[in-house]
Amino acid sequence: xxxxxxxxxxxxxxxxxxxxxxxxxxxxxxxxxxxxxxxxxxxxxxxxxxxxxxxxxxxxxxxxxxxxxxxxxxxxxxxxxxxxxxxxxxxxxxxxxxxxxxxxxxxxxxxxxxxxxxxxxx
Length: 122
Fold this sequence. Notes:
The chain is α+β, with helices and mostly antiparallel strands. It is built from three helices and four strands. It has helices spanning about 15-25, 60-75, 100-120, and strands spanning about 25-30, 35-40, 45-50, 85-95. The relative contact order is 0.23.
């Protein structure tokens, strides 16, 4: 069975990496989460998740993180993903995110990423 774990090279892990994204990145508010993205010079996109207790207890936060990782994995593996630009992406989920259908979350995620790409071009 193949592993679907997010490899360490595709994760934002250190405080200074998160701080760089928050300081230098573009922020887009979606319906179910906020995305902050900043260009990186690395070989691939990287994901960071900030799930505070505002969205719920540990079970809810962990589910939100699993859903976000799956959306990120599908987006970066899809053909609609622009290969030329690499970014560090931090996702901040909102309360109620885990009660929505996955397809609706994917639409919001891809729409928010599209707005970030369009705003960085103009």
